Amino acid sequence: MIGCGYVGLVTGACLAEIGHEVVCTDNDEAKIRTLQAGQLPIYEPHLDQVVERARAQKRLSFTSDVHEAIRSGDAIFICVGTPPLENGDADLSAIDRVAKWIATESRSPKLVVEKSTVPVQTGQQLKRALAVYGRNGGATFQVASNPEFLREGTAVGDFLHPDRIVIGVENKTAEEKLREIYRPILEKRFHCPVHTKGCPSSDPPPFVVTTINSAELIKHASNSFLALKISYANALADLCEKLDANVEEVTRAMGLDPRIGPQFLRAGLGFGGFCFPKDIQAFIRLAERAGVDFALLKEAEGINKRRIAQFLEKARRVLWVLKEKKVGILGLAFKPNTDDIRFAPAIDMIRQLLAEGAHVSAYDPEAVEKTRAVYPKIHYGADAYEVAKDSDAVFVVTEWPEFRALDWKRIHGLMARPLVFDGRNLLDAAEMKRLGFEYHSVGRPD
Ligand SMILES: NC(=O)c1ccc[n+]([C@@H]2O[C@H](COP(=O)([O-])OP(=O)(O)OC[C@H]3O[C@@H](n4cnc5c(N)ncnc54)[C@H](O)[C@@H]3O)[C@@H](O)[C@H]2O)c1
To answer: Which of 98, 110, 154, 303 has the fewest Cβ atoms surrounding its Cβ within 10 A?
Structure first.
């Protein structure tokens, strides 16, 4: 496993959990030291148990010696980051670097698996790089694509109970090898840390075998489609606000149609995180280069980019002047159950609030430390109540379930002005009004 971020760690730990021997490496030595010391560099439910068990059973180890990791495995999963470049393209330099290492260090046949999200045709480039830099006759290479669909916050469950396993291969040997790797998941033979009282019964996940190009495209196409759905719900919310309808009522009824489905139709501050924003950008660039006008995606991206500014405009109409106002932010992670703040709406919102001279105080159950590295000077409350104290407004930015369960009556008493902007439609509008709040949400009548 090369790359011990979210995907690398979850993949490595879960593959060890289902019985394989896994060596994980990363060029971030501090990350490897943390892992060797038995700690996790990220917050992800159940991951600590999986890592601990696999390490105790000597199936999972961490090393900063990338050469050792490469030589030890016959299948190498590339899980390095593919962040966006300035122009929106995926930065594939980490994949390129890793390809050179694999080519020069391998002494035996290897199956090289792309787990990172990459633009279509990366597999071809990877194959070429492995061939060009290969130095040892004993090393031959097969390349496969195995896109990852896990969601942060439910990553362990998603990996062990996937709704599909997609592999892109060039021949039967690579297909069989990957089928063998995933056999315990396909046959549901593993210890599940998520369902301690037994996993719900379900059919085995479909094992979808495609070409490498198709597998790469499936990942970008899936993420872009989900992003599109979210932006659709958000544009609908804007319409509902203008026409005095309730977006929750509209999307709930829409979602009952099985052709539409209820998921990813929640209106709010839009999508963030390390996947959707960069993947939709990379997909737009890919289409442009292929000479295909995929303007639909550009619009979905544009709608998303405008969410924060639009929501702050609503806040400005109510608060009048933002300068010198004390504003509380509830939620920093891009979604609940993670400490990931990459491209998180809260980060953008804080930037805009600070630019207008507001005093920001923030709280998140898991993501404070990571946010402190970006904004060391804002105030961080020990809990939501400290953030609410004496504030002129509170913004709900991440839909952590525990925010719903807060003692909002107490918060009402603590605030200088009991004003809540709920960017995730997390709270019950009628209840908030009953408690005496000025309450504003997204696409629901104020
Ligand atoms: N995070 C998700 O929910 C998710 C889901 C599906 C797919 N993906 C994709 O998986 C890939 C990884 O995402 P992530 O969230 O795990 O990112 P991440 O930043 O958490 O992890 C990437 C890791 O790669 C390491 N790395 C970078 N260059 C390296 C090199 N040359 N050698 C060794 N290690 C190197 C980094 O130090 C980092 O630890 C991306 O392509 C992403 O799009 C992510």
So the answer is: 154
Whole-model pTM: value is: 0.95
- Ligand 1 centroid distance, CA of 7 (Å): 6
Residue the block writes with tokens 């490496």: 25
- Closest C-alpha residue for ligand 1 atom 31: 94
Mutate to test the pocket of ligand 1, among 1, 68, 79 (most ligand atoms within 8 A of CB): 79
Q: How far is CA 294 from CA 91, 122, 192, in A?
A: 21, 20, 41
Residues 6+ apart with CB under 8 A from 332: 341, 344, 346, 347, 362, 363, 364, 367, 368, 370, 371, 397, 398
CA–CA–CA angle 342, 429, 412 (5° rounding): 85
Kindly give the distance from the C-alpha atom of residue 263 to the centroid of ligand 1, in angstroms, as a whole number.
26
Q: Measure 47 CA to ligand 1 centroid, in angstroms.
A: 16
Pocket test for ligand 1, best of 23, 115, 151, 274 (most atoms within 8 A of CB): 274
Closest approach atom of ligand 1 to CA 42:
20
- What are 362-403's pLDDT values in tens digits? 999 999 999 999 999 999 999 999 999 999 999 999 999 999
| Residue 291: Cβ-neighbour burial (10 angstroms; 0-12, 13-18, 19+) | exposed
Q: What would the DSSP string read from start to end of 127-141?
A: HHHHHHH---TT--E
Strand, helix or coil for residue 62: strand
Which residues form the catalytic set? Answer: 275
Query: Is residue 49 classed exposed, middle or buried when 0-12, 13-18 and 19+ CB atoms within 10 A define those classes?
Result: middle
